[in-house]
Amino acid sequence: MTTPSPTLAALAAVMTAGALMLATRSQDFTNAAVDGHALRMLVAGTGDATVVFENGCCPSLESWDNVQREVSRFATTVAYDRAGIGLSADGPLPRDGARIAAELHRALELAGFPPPYVLVGASLGGPYVRIFAGLYPDEVAALVLVDPTHDAEDFAELEDAGIPELDAWPETRTQARDSPVPPGVPVFLIDARAPADVPFATAAIREARAEGQRELAAESLGYEEWLAGVPRGELVVTEQSGHNVAIEQPELVVTTIRRAVEAARATRGRESSP
């Protein structure tokens, strides 16, 4: 997470997702029963590309509403609630990235969506889609990481929050680090560098914002260092939104996903050429 307060970022995302749920409640949803627990999925659009959205911690699939609506104009899209999130049933512990990736893989299979996939992961969803790509390298066409949680994050301040996915973060972090990007897979990473402005800020708030700027700078450097080892990696920088890019600047996410879909199609075209 890339804000001075991950707790506030998570709460803001949950509240916004709740509002979006009201706007999308007339839509049709489906469920995939994975190892005895149901995962709620929202499917929209058509096309040869299948774009799969992986949420951050801990909003429901409605957090992608503005993005999914537009991406569905040029691709098949799948958003879902992980086990224990939104309206999906609780799943077995621990809630580490390898388990989450395996459950998503099974859900896509049960729902009838064959690979390859363009995986879009925001915040904590970033490490999850990296792990998915490591486990199923032949099934991933492209990755879009939306201000992803960085490997250096420790979540120490939230260790007593009772959130199973954060409790399993040490294992997830190791799994993400051990998951190389499959050869030839394009990766687009959106780095959001604008902490939220607060009107009439007190001295304490200004100090927190200054610390947040330092944290953002350190994370941006970490992104650049990681992407340097990804042959087809590209950094997309925005100064116009904070951590919740899909809500604050959905058009940027849509444009980046379109580029990922086009890059994946070009790769398939080259591979199929004699």
Can you tell me about this structure?
With 274 residues, the protein is α/β, with parallel strands linked by helices. The protein has one domain (6-267): 3-Layer(aba) Sandwich (Rossmann fold). Helix content is 43%, strand content 18%. It is built from 9 helices and 8 strands. It has helices at residues 6-24, 65-71, 97-111, 125-135, 164-167, 169-177, 203-227, 245-248, 250-272; strands spanning 30-34, 37-44, 50-54, 76-80, 117-122, 140-146, 187-192, 233-238. It has an 8-stranded mixed β-sheet, sandwiched between helices. Strand 3, helix 2 (65-71) and strand 4 (76-80) form a beta-alpha-beta unit. Helix 2 runs parallel beside helix 9. The longest helix is centred in the last third of the chain and has 25 residues, at 203-227. It is globular and about 60 Å long. The chain starts with 5 loop residues before the first helix and ends with a helix.
Write the layout of secondary structure elements.
Blueprint: H1 6-24, E1 30-34, E2 37-44, E3 50-54, H2 65-71, E4 76-80, H3 97-111, E5 117-122, H4 125-135, E6 140-146, H5 164-167, H6 169-177, E7 187-192, H7 203-227, E8 233-238, H8 245-248, H9 250-272
Structure at a glance:
By secondary structure, the protein is an alpha/beta fold. It has helices spanning 6-24, 65-71, 97-111, 125-135, 164-167, 169-177, 203-227, 245-248, 250-272; strands spanning 30-34, 37-44, 50-54, 76-80, 117-122, 140-146, 187-192, 233-238.
